[in-house]
Amino acid sequence: MEEKQVRVALRPLEEKEAKLTSDVSRMKGRFAALDKTLRQSQKEYEKCLRKAENYTDEMETSMSDLHALDSIQRQAERRVTTQKEKVESLEAQMGDYPPENEIEDMINEARNSATDCRKKVQLTKIELGRVAQQLK
Question: How many CA atoms lie within 13 A of 111 on its CB side?
Answer without folding.
Answer: 6
